[in-house]
Amino acid sequence: MSDSNKSVTAQAINAQDKELLADIQDALANCMKCGNCMEVCPIYKELGTETAVARGKLALMEAVLSGKIPISENFDKWMAKCVSCKACSVKCPCGVPADELIVRGRQAAVKARGLHPVKKQVFNLLKNRAMFDLALRMAGLFGPLSMKKLPRPMAAVARFPMPGLDKRRVTAPFAATPLRSQNPEVIKVDKPKMKVGFFTGCTINYIYTDVGQAVIDVLKANNVEIVIPPMQHCCGTPIFMSGDVESAKLLAKHNIEVFEQYDIDYIIAACGSCAEAWKIEFIELFHDNPVMKAKAEKLASKTYEISQFLVNVVKLDKSRLGPVNATVTMHDPCHMARGIKVTAEPREILKSIPGLTFVEMKEADRCCGSGGSFSLANYEISRKINDRKIANIAETKADTVATSCGTCRMHITDGLVQNNMDQNVFHVIQLLDRAYKAGQRK
Q1: Is-contact 327 357, C-beta < 8 A?
Q2: Three-state SS for 26?
Q3: What is the pTM of this model?
């Protein structure tokens, strides 16, 4: 190809790339490049490069819009270097939704370059509910052959090298039987106050079934009837955050159509990211589809994170709680603190438990470094971010860490093991469930 033809081709590619970001040009221009995001960005704190922080990523998108650079492999790489903690958006004095714009940058990269082959395979599996369910059931069944359990709750390491998993990394074993298979579709109670649909999400259904069972037991203790739709599927947040909008829409549509079949008063989730998907992301995904948007808005209006639901809707009876003798500190997941903005309710629950001493940690809402799948692709960076969280935990002298997110629980457990600390990590609702059971023994 001649130099002139190459130039014409490059210009055409640049024009196509610019079109992918044209509708957010004004939003990008609102960034005044003040650098406030540098103060709170966990990635920038570790890498110290301009492209690591929100300001730099928005500048890359502006460079695409001005025709200075194409949407290249390097552009894709730096858009992916973000834990989606939303701290930059909260800190921005101009109100620039940098986290949302970075996701738009990822979406543009997917449209221009396609998904990474590994992500494409994983997402294709995830879109097939039956095959995904079978794969994770098999992982639970044969997991002991590949994973060795550690002498602490829900912790395991690989017995041999596994693709995409650092050999040092501590993860949680898959359940031999998923939560939804352990329970009937409808869990009845005497004199029910209300009926809820339990969106289990993937992590609770296939890994942390102990959390799911605690949610069920606490709801039963509060006379709440529970429906667990067997056909529910992944909320799609991992796909959405990776920029694959069309696949995320498929999963969102599936879940909306599954849950709208049931006569339920509320939808509850025990994961901040899942709750955010129902309350915010589903509506955004269908902004150009009035019918689906209306359905998403209707279900979003009755969706609650479990601690928020128990405190604000159920008004749980604290007189029935027995003692839990533990010193507990709390880590706020990013999508809880800055997504759905639920931080007071988990603390109210913990402080209501007799015998439990609550100690606030420094930077409780700072990202732990997990970022969902971010820590898989960027383990060294995520470990450094995690080490800061572990240091803050150590300062509290707490013997237990509470959180409201499965991937945070897993990543903090890894950090504790790597730093030779023996604290255990539990979901807030597990501690509440323990208190209810202690109350029954009084």
Answers
A1: yes
A2: helix
A3: 0.93
